[in-house]
């Protein structure tokens, strides 16, 4: 059984063929909809928007390990431990908060 504690170990796993193939399957299984939003009566779907800044498709949905990969490596590729969630729900699940930057020009009448 592999360990997924370091950034390098996790990167290797998430870049693996097995993970990419399985995450595509999970997105199809969950109809490209955030399952957490769905449980709360909302709809959050994937879009095909392109980010000029990042030079890639904007990430709206991710495949989430319900029981964290780091603590339950044996469930890394278990479909029952995976679900699709939007980036906002994923960040809430992992207690990540990103404060919105204050626009100092917002009240300027010229803008």
Walkthrough of the structure:
It is a single chain. With 111 residues, the chain is α+β, with helices and mostly antiparallel strands. Helices cover 30% and strands 13% of the residues. The chain has helices spanning 7-14, 17-29, 35-39, 87-93; strands at 50-51, 56-57, 61-65, 82-86. The strands form 2 sheets. A two-stranded antiparallel ribbon has the order 1-2. A two-stranded antiparallel ribbon has the order 3-4. 11% of the residues are buried. The model has no long low-confidence stretch (mean pLDDT 88).
Topology:
Blueprint (H helix, E strand, L loop, with lengths): L6 H8 L2 H13 L5 H5 L10 E2 L4 E2 L3 E5 L16 E5 H7 L18
Antiparallel strand pairs: 1-2, 3-4
Quick structural overview:
It is built from 4 helices and 4 strands; from the N terminus they run H-H-H-E-E-E-E-H. The protein is α+β, with helices and mostly antiparallel strands and 111 residues long. The model has no long low-confidence stretch (mean pLDDT 88).
Comma- or semicolon-separated keywords:
111 residues, alpha+beta, two-stranded antiparallel sheet, two-stranded antiparallel ribbon, 4 strands, 13% strand
């Amino acid at each position: 059984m592999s360990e997924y504690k370091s950034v390098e170990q996790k990167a290797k796993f998430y870049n693996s063929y097995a993970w990419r193939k399985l995450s595509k399957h999970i997105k199809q299984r969950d109809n490209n909809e955030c399952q957490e939003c769905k449980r709360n009566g909302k709809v959050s779907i994937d879009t095909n928007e392109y980010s000029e800044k990042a030079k890639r498709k904007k990430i709206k949905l991710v495949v989430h390990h319900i029981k964290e990969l780091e603590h339950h490596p044996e469930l890394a590729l278990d479909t029952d431990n995976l679900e699709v969630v939007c980036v906002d729900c994923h960040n809430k699940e992992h207690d990540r908060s990103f404060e919105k930057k204050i626009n100092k020009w917002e009240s300027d009448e010229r803008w």
